[in-house]
Amino acid sequence: MSTKNEHHSVPLGVLLKREMENEKTEKPDIIYGQANQSKKGEDFTLLKTECQRVLGDGVTTFSVFALFDGHNGSAAAIYSKENLLNNILGAIPSDLSRDEWIAALPRALVSGFVKTDKDFQEKAQTSGTTVTFAIVDGWVITVASVGDSRCILESAEGVVYYLSADHRLECNEEERERITASGGEVGRLNAGGGAEIGPLRCWPGGLCLSRSIGDMDIGEFIVPVPYVKQVKVC
Fold it and tell me: Does a structural domain hold residue 5?
């Protein structure tokens, strides 16, 4: 029981969700920003809104947000930033409806990552990069990731969802098992005298990640196939 003057607080996220449900908004407004501190000049972002599924119609739009955390040089991160989106879109037939286009995204993301890695390795450069790539179309978010750059979604109810996988060997037992089953080795850096230091790494090469784009000097155990997750947030 409550009195007339008693007030109950309601989280802002819940109020916003109620308002959106009442208005039946088909496409949310996207507010975005970025902040970064790149010590070695190897990290890059891609932010593109109003991308068109059908060129020239100005209606069928989606947004792209991506992070490329390079290592051993910036070449792989720059190449991925400049080519990955086109490779993803090139893997999707042009005559699909919106629902069909969204359904085709997960497979297209995998194809785009693999093609980008293959094309970059033909350049014979040894750098590599993590990639976390998010496509927002209406209320549907599709994320593909290799490496350890995280994508996190907080719902209107305050629940946190992880939309990316962590491919750091230190914390991913499944990836450690995949590498050893394929003939690779996982271990720490040998500092001599039996002492081991630092995070778990893949040998040969010594990379602490199990998936990336580039890293041709590491060998076949580091793969570009991304973890993909698609969610509808409303």
Answer: no
111 exposure class (CB count in 10 Å sphere: 0-12, 13-18, 19+): middle
Q: Which of 197, 186, 142, 139 has its CA nearest to residue 164?
A: 142
State the pTM of this model.
0.84
d(CA 209, CA 165): 12
Residue 80 lies in a domain: yes
Residue 18 lies in a domain: no
CA terminus-to-terminus distance, the chain: 33
Exposure string over 193-231, b if 16+ CB within 10 A, otherwise e: eeeeeeebbbbebebbbbbbbbbbbbeebbbbebbbbbe
Tokens of 91: 């893997």
Task: Supply the CATH number for residue 150's domain.
Answer: 3.60.40.10
Instruction: Indicate the pLDDT class of residue 119, thresholds 50, 70 and 90.
Output: very high
CA dihedral 224, 95, 49, 121 (to 10 degrees): 20
Tokens of 152: 């996190």
Mean pLDDT check: name the lowest of 37-46, 75-84, 129-138. Answer: 37-46
Average pLDDT, the chain: 86
Does 63 fall in a domain?
yes
Q: Residue 113's domain spans which residues?
A: 40-232
Q: How many domains does the chain have?
A: 1
Tokens at 199, concatenated: 């995070």
Residue 64's alpha-carbon distances to 89, 134, 170, 234, in angstroms, are: 12, 6, 30, 19
**Which residues are within 8 A (CB) of 181 and not within 5 positions of it... i.e. 6 or more apart?**
none
121-155: pLDDT as tens digits: 998 888 999 999 999 999 999 999 999 999 999 87
